[in-house]
Amino acid sequence: MAVAPLYKTQELKIYNSISGQKEVFTPITEGNIGMYVCGPTVYSNVHLGNCRTFISFDLVYRYLKHLGYKVRYVRNITDAGHLENDSDEGEDKVSKKARLEQLEPMEIVQRYTLDFHNILAKFNNIPPSIEPTATGHIVEQIEIIKTIIDNGFAYVANGSVYFDVKKFNETNTYGKLSGRNLEDMIANTRELTAQSDKKNPQDFALWKKAEPEHIMRWPSPWSDGFPGWHLECTVMSTKYLGEQFDIHGGGMDLKFPHHECEIAQGEAACGVTPVNYWMHANMLTLDGKKMSKSTGNILSPAEIFNGESDKLNKAFAPTVARFFMLQAHYRSILDFSNDALEASEKGFYRLMESIETLAHLKTSKTTEGFDIQNWVNECYEAMDDDFNSPILIAKLFEAVKFINSVKEDKATISEVDYKLLQETMNAFVFDVLGLVNINEASSDISDKLSGTVELLIQLRAEARANKDFATSDKIRDELQAMGIQLKDGREGTSFTLN
């Protein structure tokens, strides 16, 4: 008999940015989810803030799949149209980098797309179902501009096309995602410069006429030019997920104007609100301050992996850095520091050690000291509460404590509960959180470490037999200082990594 998917028994709640509250998640089509996440603009190496956003939505993707949903996850690559300062003026970010390095724009795109994929692979992110590019959808962008013009929400000015925000706001609400009022925005905006082709300062470009020096350009009914940055996401999300889809994610910094403009474009072109649940991941800080290239308060993923930064005392494995990020809720600000990473590393190894201990645990007739089924329910409750990974991790460490108690003969576990515990631990640690057991990957080092500690345990036992308690205590205390805890039990002395 077929087993019902988990989503049938779980009530998942998602914090919806547009309503400002948690809502019970109901997909448009039962069992199927369309999810779109704004991807990177590939003109430089991916930065840590981007990585946190993509790790957060990798967690979402993994959990939805774990619940049994069929998920189509679309994440774009912006390789054209994103101007400096996220405005409608200035130079295209990819074009500028190409000009500075005297390369073709697509060489820049290729280099930094490969870097992006490489870094996310190190973090063990699952690739999206579809990863479309802006330049691969120029035709579709031109067609949707025609539709928006025909619907009366855009105008042509000197070869460029602009979205008419005031006209749109007569029948719709511009600002409903970010909570901004159009009248207030207009009142607080300086007058347009004489050079501007816009009717109003809030209007945004759907198509920009290319200046003679602009490298990346395409023919259109209005001019040789390029699409506006906001347009690509509307086009690619609707093409692959439909005019209305379930989840749209991105960094908090994209809420306005990027996502606000996406909503306006979708409603103007299709007549329906495009997204049911808007999700936004919060920012990163470093040592309590905003990350900034200009101040030098910056840390790259590569620097975390190789330790070559004055902000760090050592290198950290990508999976440890991932674990650190997941210890904070995706909607909360996360502060990176060497001390915080070191603390996470200790916790990570404790978790991995317990997974290995669990694999060799002895079972009994009954379970005493822990309610396994209740614990399983609490793990799901944590993730069903807006993907609350820090609460989930806290629950996992409750299981770690129990596993160690069983190992030390202070608790027991039945065969049935053992299978449930092992299955649930593996599902949440590896499938949902996406962690990698680097203890297994470096088993040679682990074996040598174990052998060394076992030798010291033997020497300590001999010292105790000879009533040389000074030496015995010295071995125990020195190991403790190095983070190795000795535990004396009925079957001898074992050790754990703190």
UniProtKB/TrEMBL annotation:
Oligomer status and interactors: Monomer.
Residue numbers covered by motif 'HIGH' region: 40-50
Name of the protein this chain belongs to: Cysteine--tRNA ligase
SMART domains attached to this UniProt entry: DALR_2
Class in the EC hierarchy, top level: ligase
Gene coding for it: cysS
Subcellular localization: Cytoplasm
Similarity annotation: Belongs to the class-I aminoacyl-tRNA synthetase family.
Superkingdom of source: Bacteria
